[in-house]
Amino acid sequence: MYQARSRRERGDVGSIEVFLVCLRGDVIMDLGIAVWSASARERMSHFRGGAGVSRSSQDPVDSAVLWRLLALHAGHRIAALYEDTKRLNQVFEDGDPAMIGGDADGDIPVDVFLEGWREADPDVPRLNAHGLLRCTVDDGRLWLGAAHGRSPAEVSFFRAGVAGAPGNSTYDRVNRSLWRFLADHVMHELTVDVVTELPATAIGAVGGESFGDYVAGWPG
Ligand SMILES: [Zn+2]
Ligand SMILES: [Zn+2]
């Protein structure tokens, strides 16, 4: 009962939650409540978090969980899905995904999910590969950074910044770009690609824009 659980935590009725799911059906994360765009009704603007967090992108724990999830599910298809949609219900019919931060049997406590993960750990080798979040519907692309890990099949984290810069989950414009991309592509199937070759223009960019330009003026 994913809705009931998250509703109880947030004490919010009548709003629509958005969940990030791996389409293999193994894991699910609550991204927050959909906030609609002021200029275009029924178009999503950003995510509101729980417990007094007005923007999910500013929740350091949710952001860490999100970046960790992308690394662990490199190569998989994912989607940000509205609650009570056929697509999301199908994920639950097909499998029994573990909710990160949920409290049902089989769910994964946040501290367990993040245990031992050191984002931007200098001892984790940088692979000769990039992470790319790609939309299968409109071909939108978000560069996730250089893949770090033991092998492309075992990515520990993606890193957009150079040495000394913060890890992605605390690198504000990079982190906010990811949250915005998920809002912009809600209900679209995305792939977390790990690629060895990328055009130079794709690096450090969301589509043809820099991270800074992409989130400039965005309320999330
Ligand atoms: Zn997966
Ligand atoms: Zn899309």
Structure description:
- The chain is α+β, with helices and mostly antiparallel strands.
- It has one domain.
- Helix content is 25%, strand content 30%.
- It has six helices and eleven strands.
- It has helices at residues 2-10, 60-72, 86-94, 110-114, 172-184, 211-215, and strands spanning 17-22, 27-36, 44-48, 77-82, 98-99, 126-135, 141-151, 154-159, 190-195, 205-206, 209-210.
- The strands form two sheets. Strands 1, 2, 3, 4, 5, 6, 7, 8 and 9 form a nine-stranded mixed sheet that branches. A two-stranded antiparallel ribbon has the order 10-11.
- It is globular, with a radius of gyration of 16 Å.
- The two termini are 28 Å apart.
The overall number of domains is 1
* Strand runs, count: 11
Percentage of residues in strands: 25-35%
Secondary-structure element string: HEEEHEHEHEEEHEEEH
Which blocks of ≥5 consecutive residues have pLDDT under 50?
Answer: 3-11
| Spatial shape | globular
Bound molecules: zinc ion
Helicity, in percent?
A: 10-25%
Sketch the major β-sheet.
Answer: 9 strands, mixed
The average pLDDT is: 91
Q: How far apart lie the N and C ends?
A: 28 Å
Taking all Cα atoms into account, the compactness measure Rg is 16 Å
- Work out the helix count: 6
Instruction: Give the class from helix and strand content and strand pairing.
Output: alpha+beta
Short description:
This protein has 220 residues and is of the alpha+beta class. The protein has six helices and eleven strands. The site of one zinc ion has 5 residues, from loops.
